[in-house]
Amino acid sequence: MSDRFEGLKKIPEVPAARLLAGTNLKLDTKLESPASAGVSVVLAELASHEAAIDMIKLIAASLPPREAVWWGCLAMRDVLGPDVKPTPCLKAAEAWVFKPSEETQAAAHRASEAANPTDDSSIVATMAVFGQGTLGPGDLKEHPAPDGAVAAMAAGVNLMALEALGGDLHDAVDYLIDRALDIARGGNGMIERKAGAEA
Predict the structure, then answer these.
(1) E-strand stretches of the chain
(2) DSSP designation for 186
(3) How many domains does the chain have?
(4) CA distance linking residue 100 with residue 84, whole number of Å
(5) I need a surface site. Which of 122, 166, 179, 182 has the fewest CB within 10 A?
(6) What is the number of alpha carbons within 13 Å of residue 89 lying toward its C-beta?
(7) Helices and strands (H, E) in the chain, number of each type
(8) Cα–Cα distances in angstroms (integers) from residue 93 to residues 66, 85, 173, 177, in the given order
(9) Residue ranges of the chain with pLDDT lower than 70?
(10) Contact between residue 156 and residue 57 where contact means Cβ atoms under 8 Å apart
(11) Alpha-carbon distance 91 to 167, whole Å?
(12) Of 49, 50, 79, which is closest to residue 170 (Cα–Cα)?
């Protein structure tokens, strides 16, 4: 197995199939790995099949909520573009990542509620709200967040980032995946994109 997928200390050491089962994300690739295979093993198999979209889905299902929200925030910065200031939703989501609490969850909830319907960044604010494990602050905290919602949104916003990144599609996918792997190792995900990969 490639060492590309080793050292993912933030990802639980449980079968990848179990992590996927807790979300609505399903892989399109038929796996040869046993059902007991961990995330690193399955990622390596998916890489051998060049099943990049399935790799994004599996990583999204595997990262803990805080790390998944951060991965989503980085992707949203790609979607918005380098010349666009962070939106209130993105700022609120990032604040929750830096300090997960009921206070920052409430701020993310307010930002998502106030966002224009065309504001894509409301996705990451909603991720931060659900990342706390509930539907929101106040009375909403009596209700659990939808199963797998953070994972589904993390996958979705990274797929949105693919088009925004431009350049070679294969390189863009690898960049998003390597960013997530860096986060899974305990890094901040702020890695350099390969030279020549951008449009």
Answers:
(1) none
(2) T
(3) 1
(4) 25
(5) 166
(6) 24
(7) 9, 0
(8) 10, 14, 23, 21
(9) 1-2, 195-199
(10) no
(11) 27
(12) 50
Closest C-alpha to 62, from 45, 34, 40 = 40
Q: Indicate the residue type of 59.
A: I
Token pair recorded at residue 99: 């300090």
Which of 93, 124, 122 shows the shortest CA–CA distance to 106? 93
Structure tokens at 147: 């199963």
Location of structure tokens 């979300």: 23
Q: Which domain range does residue 143 map to?
A: 1-199
Distance CA 152, CA 139 (A): 24
Residues 6+ apart with CB under 8 A from 120: 76, 79, 80, 157, 160
Rounded distance between C-alpha atoms, residue 175 and residue 135, angstroms: 31
Q: Considering the entire predicted model, what is its pTM?
A: 0.94
* Contact criterion met (CB below 8 Å) for 109 and 132: no
